[in-house]
Amino acid sequence: MDDSDHFQSGGFPTPSRPLTGLTLLAVEDSRFAFEAFRLLALHSGARLRRADSLTAAERHLAIYRPSAIIVDLGLPDGDGTRLIAKLHHAIPRIGIILGTSGDDAADDAVRAAGADGFLAKPVRSLATFQELILSLLPGGCRPLEPRVVNDEEIRPDTLTYHEDLAHIAELLRQSPEGRGLDYVAQFLTSIARSAGDLPLLSAGEALTIARMQQRACLDQVARITDLLRDRIDGRSALQRGI
Q1: What region does 21 belong to: left with phi over 0, alpha with psi -120 to 50, or beta?
Q2: Which H or E element spans position 24?
């Protein structure tokens, strides 16, 4: 099934919903980051699907070809630039390929792999999100009337952030080593930066440095575990009305 036909049953773009008729695929492991993309797509009129790994994305793309794809770079089973490069050289090519990362410096790597653009996390500006995708669409797929510029900022539900934290806690309970800790550090720093959680961001960066220097990481892991426990237990208490 080919979702790249912009004017299927999804309807036509309008000034207030300029991405109506488009189907987007977000290859994103973070529930918190995906919730932001979901809200951005919702307010833009686009449909959105999710794949949480390279493997899941390959399964999806074997069946559907979306109008646009947004690929996170730090995925549990590899670097998103691998998928971007593969999609860039595929025939037929997906119309719009975007990379996304919490690391602004990743822009060059994303474009070198063949992406058409880059979204730096956190992606909060609805206007910026719409403008980037619209700028890459063929002229006939854009709204015929002037677009209503919406300066709204998207704020994902913090519940999804805590779901990500619980996932990290589970990974640490499984005693990851080597690349497992590398993934934890990358995932943690990315979501903490997006959420503005500075203590957790600092702890994730400390783990990243320890891994780069090939040092023991027991202290860093213990610190992260304590911070996760505080946040998860605090959320649970709030839900119980304590």
Answers
A1: left
A2: strand 23-27
Spatial distance between the Cα atoms of 218 and 224, rounded to a whole number of angstroms: 10
97 in Cβ contact with 67 (< 8 Å): no
Amino acid at 48: L
Cβ neighbors of 184 (< 8 A, separation 6 or more) are 168, 171, 172, 176, 207, 224
Cα 216 vs. chain centroid, distance in angstroms? 30
Pair of tokens at residue 48: 């959105």
| CA-to-CA separations, 217 to 76, 108, 166, 206, 229, in angstroms, rounded | 20, 30, 20, 9, 18
- 0.90 exceeded by the pTM? no
Residue 152 confidence class, pLDDT cut points 50, 70, 90: confident
Cα angle at 144 between 6 and 19, to 5 degrees? 40
